[in-house]
Amino acid sequence: MSDFPELRNHEGERLDATFAAGEADNPWFVVIGHGVTGNKDRPWAVTLQNALTEAGYGSVRFSFAGNGDSEGSFEASTISKEVRELRELLGVLEAAMPHARFVYAGHSQGGAVGALAAARERRIKKLVSLAGMVHTAQFYERKFGDLEPGSAVMWDKPECPLSPEYEADMRSIGNVLDAAEDVRVPWLLVHGTADTVVPLADSHDVYGVQGRRARLVELEGVDHVFSGGADAAMAAVVVDWLGTT
Length: 245
Known about the structure:
Oligomer: single chain
Number of domains: 1
Number of strands: 7
CATH class: Alpha Beta
Number of helices: 8
Helix content: 25-40%
């Protein structure tokens, strides 16, 4: 299709999105979601979308509300809200593309969003986790536990205030392993061995509860954001997997 829909969440907030059309006979459409303090224009996301387009897949990379150029408050950007936004986005896409089959590819915190959504979302037919976060409470404690919600910011970024809502949601979720057990669609896990933000062990934990139904690909020496050209290697893994599952 040439006229892609506008994306808005349940609060009417517009979600900034970049669409790319696929080949007419390819029903698979990939939705690309980012992690905490990220946005749709991170280099890894652009590289992934370009690789998907070259391989004939339609796709959209978008920023969750409060992130990048999307409307909304960053302080309200919790995993639980983003799960709801993803499901609403899929509803809009399904109405616009009724014959499409949807893949969700989430990076970091976006990976946790994907696991929680895919456990109960029929529209997600394949799932990709890129350095996906699993242990949300541990992540919060490790990265932000010594900061004061309501007055501190994340990673020295003034535009990313640390909110009490975010802390409460991360601690309430705890981890996404129960949801991961309920995911019954093909699932690709891609993780760098040098990731110091979300440990490789998170992907191993998902692989364990999936009973080896998932596929785990470790990229040797690669960091959390697939820098130094590793984004191309990551994208190649995703494209190959999509074509063989």
